[in-house]
Amino acid sequence: MSDEYQTIEKEATGYFKDKGSKFFAYAFPVTDEEQVKEHIQQLKKEHHAARHHCYAWRMGTEEITTRANDDGEPSSTAGKPILGQLIRFNVTNILVVVVRYFGGTLLGVSGLINAYKSATIDVLSNVEILSKRIEISFELSFEYPLLNIVMQTIKQEGLEIVSTDFRESCRLVFKVRKADADKALQTFETIYGVTIKSLSSK
Asked: N or C: which end of the chain has fewer CB within 10 A?
């Protein structure tokens, strides 16, 4: 099972025009719905004269959540075509908003679907899509006499330390790519006196 996913880290814009209607597309990296709301509110301020602010997003790395919104366009003519391209490009943790200025001529259902699809393709073609690893964090708990062996093991296994707390007893969080998670778990389970527990994957 793949432990990689594709996403973006920077914002981007795209554009499509048909029969006078202008479609401005915006892509944003997002990880929660609050960010989605903020971006949409900002675009509504910037494009307050626009008739529609349609969008779709995908979030998550293993279990992916999606949403699509037509914002007043006929059902499934805007949000769904946007979402369809997010799926086709296989990107997640991303929001695409397409702002439409009506040009005076009705495009019809097929015309709208094509327009929102084309605007989304344009913005996704303009943004850098990155492959990232799904990583799992583990928390280690142990007493001071075991500190040296724990640190040596982390170095030998090439694990990345996220945080440490060595005040009363020792607590350390490290992360590892999902494909190597079982090996890391077994490695520390064999060290007597070390407690290891899995935290959420990212």
From this structure: N
φ, ψ dihedrals at 182, nearest 5°? -65, -40
In this structure, the strands spanning 170-177 and 135-142 are antiparallel
Q: What is the mean pLDDT of residues 27-41?
A: 97
Nearest alpha carbon to residue 30 among 20, 39, 22: 39
Cβ neighbours for 130, distance < 8 A, ≥ 6 positions apart = 6, 7, 8, 9
Residue spans per domain, the chain: 4-131, 135-201
Whether the CB-CB separation of 57 and 96 falls below 8 Å is answered with yes
At 173, list the tokens.
């969080």
Q: For 37-88, write each residue's pLDDT tens digit.
A: 999 999 999 999 999 999 999 999 888 999 999 999 999 999 999 999 999 9
Give domain 135-201's CATH architecture. Answer: 2-Layer Sandwich (3.30)
